[in-house]
């Protein structure tokens, strides 16, 4: 505001009106200046929330920043359940600019709460339309998916005299008592993927009966979908219920692991991206969203076996060609049903089985 003396009297009433107009104009100019400063302060910087694997996340974000050196990306990463709880707590005062790779069954509930910005990214029409938001207006898009699998440690299983399973149902055999590690569906997207897929395969009643029997054989429920396969790789548990991407990494690292695709079929999920409503940096958030369907898709194809543009998958010549098997065993997953019923299913699961969950950090 201009520094004018409050009681300056030149020209009487007319001067008072002039001074008042100038003062008001000064307030407006100050407000514009503050808004401009705020936009400049936020331009070129994004706060990104994610629940994808930490090592993959670092790779993707490092590559995005190399391609977009004018954008600084700050990342907060939590497991799916923990991140979802954080975001819902911040719903009325959102902190993040961008949601990078969150399970669709969680993200769809956020969409229903109006937490995302309407935006149709470049390249959306060229990908598998199962990865596209079909409910107008478009607020999210899928990039890649993951499915269920069993990680089987050949050496440890042989020591224990355990038969190699070929199905989910066989894991309920009492011979596996204490030898299975599985992700907790309350905190892990992979864990919920398994539970919701069993319900779609067998129906809810039979699925609960199956999980009652499986629970007797589970040694621990982890808060990460990757950890059970890591535990199988290290020999801590001979059997880990996990996902193919992690199994591939552990096999390539030299662990005596077989990846089993159960004969009943496997549930699958997709990771989605969205711009958070309330972002202070919409232009750069749009650039990140467009990138995920462009150069980012090539990177996803290097690390993932199920992506929105399968033509970008880089098949590993050192591994058996399991891609067709995984694709053939994907169930017809009802994402809308899985999202709508998640809270109810998880609450019942926790009531029955949470006693074996590992402590949260």
What does it look like?
The structure is a single chain. By secondary structure, the protein is an alpha/beta fold. The chain folds into two domains: 44-144 and 269-312, D-Maltodextrin-Binding Protein, domain 2, CATH 3.40.190.10; 149-266 and 331-356, Periplasmic binding protein-like II (D-Maltodextrin-Binding Protein, domain 2, 3-Layer(aba) Sandwich), CATH 3.40.190. Helix content is 45%, strand content 16%. The protein contains 14 helices and eleven strands. The strands form two sheets. The protein has a six-stranded mixed β-sheet with strand order 2-1-3-10-4-11. The protein has a five-stranded mixed β-sheet with strand order 7-6-8-5-9. Strand 1, helix 2 (54-67) and strand 2 form a beta-alpha-beta unit. Helix 2 (54-67) runs antiparallel to helix 11 and helix 6 crosses helix 7 (204-217). The radius of gyration is 26 Å and the shape is globular. Mean pLDDT is 87; it is low at 1-42.
CATH class of the largest domain: Alpha Beta
Strand content: 15-25%
- The CATH topology of the largest domain is given as D-Maltodextrin-Binding Protein, domain 2
Number of domains: 2
From the spread of the alpha carbons, the general shape counts as globular
Mean pLDDT: 87
Largest sheet: 6 strands, mixed
Backbone structural class: alpha/beta
Poorly predicted regions are 1-42
Number of helices: 14
Succession of helices and strands: HEHEHEHEEHEHHEHEHEEHHEHHH
């Amino acid at each position: 505001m201009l520094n004018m003396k409050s009681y300056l009297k030149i020209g009487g009433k007319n001067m008072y009106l002039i001074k008042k107009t100038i003062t008001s104009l000064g307030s407006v100019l100050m407000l514009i200046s503050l808004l401009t400063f705020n936009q400049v302060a936020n331009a070129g910087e994004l706060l990104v929330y994610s629940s994808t694997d930490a090592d993959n996340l670092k790779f993707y974000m490092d590559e995005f920043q190399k391609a977009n050196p004018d954008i600084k990306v700050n990342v907060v990463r939590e497991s799916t359940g923990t991140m979802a709880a954080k975001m819902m707590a911040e719903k009325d005062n959102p902190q993040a600019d961008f949601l990078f790779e969150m399970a669709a069954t969680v993200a769809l509930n956020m969409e229903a709460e109006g937490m995302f910005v309407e935006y149709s990214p470049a390249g959306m029409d060229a990908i598998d339309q199962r990865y596209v938001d079909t409910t107008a207006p478009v607020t999210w898009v899928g990039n890649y998916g993951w499915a269920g699998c069993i990680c089987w440690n050949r050496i440890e299983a042989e020591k224990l005299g355990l038969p190699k399973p070929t199905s989910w149902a066989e894991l309920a055999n009492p011979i596996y008592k204490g030898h299975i590690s599985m992700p907790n569906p309350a905190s892990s997207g992979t864990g919920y993927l398994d539970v919701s897929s069993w319900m779609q395969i067998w129906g809810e009643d039979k699925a609960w009966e199956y999980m009652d029997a499986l629970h007797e054989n589970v040694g621990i429920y982890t808060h990460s979908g990757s950890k059970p396969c890591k535990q199988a790789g290290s020999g801590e548990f001979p059997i880990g219920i996990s996902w193919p991407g992690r199994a591939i990494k552990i096999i390539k690292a030299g662990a005596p692991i077989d990846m089993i695709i159960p004969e009943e079929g496997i549930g699958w999920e997709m990771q989605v991206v969205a711009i958070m409503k309330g972002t202070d940096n919409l232009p750069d958030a749009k650039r990140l969203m467009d990138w995920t369907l462009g150069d980012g898709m090539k990177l996803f194809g290097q690390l993932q076996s199920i992506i929105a543009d399968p033509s970008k998958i880089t098949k590993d010549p050192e591994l058996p060609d399991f891609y067709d098997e995984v694709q053939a065993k994907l169930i017809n997953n009802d994402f809308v049903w899985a999202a709508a019923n998640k809270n109810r299913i998880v609450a019942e699961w926790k009531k029955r089985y949470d006693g074996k969950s590992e402590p949260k950090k």
